[in-house]
Amino acid sequence: MLTTLEQLEAIYGLPLERAVRKEIPFLNPDYQAMVRASPLVILSTSGPDGMDGSPRGDAPGFVRIIDERTLALPDRPGNNRIDSLRNILSDPRVALLFIIPGIGETLRVNGRARISAEPALLDSFAVNGKPARTVILVDVEAAYFHCSKAIVRSELWNPERYLERSSLPSAGAILKRLCDGQFDADRYDREMPERVRNSLY
C-alpha cells in the first residue's frame, strides 16, 4: 500500500505547469460560461455522519453567479433527507462538479457554503410560482476545469452506448427488495412519471 506523498510522486511525477495554472481562486469569464451552460452539478459535502455526493439539476444557468467569487444554488423538493444541508451546517467545505451535455470538459469549484432561507432570495429562484426551499451560497476558493479524458474514455455522450431503462432494476423493484418485499413495486413504477412531474418544484 502507498502511504506517503513521496511514493505517489515516484509513480506520477509532478503536474505539468498548465495543470497547475488551471486552478484559480475565482471564476474567470471562461469558467463563468461553463457554469451558465451546465444543467447538472454534483454537490459533494462531508459531515460527522459521512460524505455525500448529490446531483442537482435544472435548466442551464440554474446555479446563479452572484459575482466571480460567489455562487447561489437553489435547493428544490426532494426526499427530505437533507444530507448535504446537514453536512454544510457542521462542515461548510463543499465541492461542485459542473457537467454540460455533449461537452467533454467539466468544471470543479471548491469553496465554503452557507444556507439561506431569506424570502426574497428564495422567491428569486421561483419556478412555476414555487420558490426554492433554501439557497446554498458558495464562497469560491478554487476553480479548475478538467480535461475531457474521463468523458472520452467513458463515451458518456455516445448515444450508441445508452442503456435501455429496462436493462436495470426499476426504482420500485429496488425499493421492494429494500423493504423485504412489503412494497407495491408495480404501482410505484406506474405512478412514478406523474409523481416526478408534479413534484419537480
Automatic annotation (TrEMBL):
InterPro entries: Pyridox_Oxase_FMN-dep, Pyridox_Oxase_N, Split_barrel_FMN-bd. Residues 29-147 form the Pyridoxamine 5'-phosphate oxidase N-terminal domain. It comes from the Bacteria. It holds the Pfam family PNPOx_N. PANTHER family: FAD-BINDING, PUTATIVE (AFU_ORTHOLOGUE AFUA_6G07600)-RELATED. NCBIfam families: PPOX_FMN_DR2398. This is Phosphohydrolase.
